[in-house]
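[SOLVED] Need 3D model of a two-part complex

Original post:
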Amino acid sequence: MKTAKVKEQFVALYESQADAVFRFCWFKTSDRELALDLTQDTFSRFWAKLVAGETVDNPRAFIFTIARHAVIDWYRSKKSLPFNRLSLAEEEMEFDPPAEGTKQLELELGAEARLLMLKINQLEPGYKQVVYLRFIEDLKPQEIAQIIGASVNVVSVRITRGLAKLRELIGINLN
Amino acid sequence: MENENLNKIKLEFKKVALTSQEKELILKQVLIQPLIKPEPTKTWGQFNWFQLTVAMVMIVIVIGTGTSLAAESSLPGDLLYQIKTKINEPLRGAVAVSPQAKVEWESTKIDRRLKEAETLADKQQLDETKRQDLEVSINQQVETFGELTKDSTSTEEIKSSFTNKLKRYSQAVEERVKQDNHEEGTTSSQTRELKKLDDSIKNKVEQTFYKHDREENDQDGGNSNRDRQNGDHRRD
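Solution:
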């Protein structure tokens, strides 16, 4: 049956991407438990779309898009203002992970990675995400553009500026 | 050299991952769960459906009320007249629950029609079609009024106020005829229409109550007939 094939594809994608998604959610929320929930949420939505028959060109980018929305929805529900009219972009700007969560993440990392993490978090909000996706997850600018809903140009500019700034902050050449 | 460093750092990062238990568990839960409906792409901000619905209902109520109020002063031929007769009046009719209230409402409706006729005449807008429409309405209302007051539970007060109303109208029409003749030497078309309306009402009233009289005669052997002749429906 077709569902079996779809399921197969899904499981394969899950196996390869779950960790990345989890990482990403943790990076965005600095809360491991929450990241677990969001990861599950992301893949639930993805599964639902596959079952509904949606075809996807770039599964990886698609999954990250869903993950990003899952994070944003969570932030919205946290605020729960009735007429919350923040645009998606503005909401990401507002996100500010609590300090302890970051420390928890850093404990899992070696010294240098920890430093990198710290510095990425010091970037401006619009740049954080883009640099993370480019540098850590090796996503292409087109893919990142799709994920965050901006133009490829904007993404490229942010990558360049973001990496330059990161270079400054760390003192490593990050090409 | 730097690239090696970078790769090292990246690999470090990628150590942040799910434990195999966590990974298994999540997969299981995703597949077991009843499916979340895939959400439509959110192009707007978060939609608060509840508040949108409330706002829309309020808008509809406000518009409806305003329109309904405006309709009250509308005349045959106006757009809002439909609202007056097909929405406002049925609504008020529905609210009139007691028999007394029903009778009064019928009477009031006739009032409204007569006023409409006179207002139209004043505006020189009363043509044959409109008059005929009013006629139909009034006839219906007279009939209904007759039905409702057939038995003796309706007060004399109501019945006499009804008759007086019609008499006043007749008199007003006579006044107009006189005035027209005085000023123009002939009756205007407006006044003529009003007169026709008046005649038709008289006919209808006679028909309706004469019919009742006959019915009662057949049942009663004549007593109530006498009552009626003494009391209410004077033809004049």
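Edit: Chain A touches chain B at residues 7, 11, 14-15, 18-19, 22-23, 26, 36, 39-40, 43-45, 47-49, 51-52, 54, 69, 76, 82-88, 105, 108-110, 112-113, 116-117, 135-136, 172-174 (CB under 8 Å).
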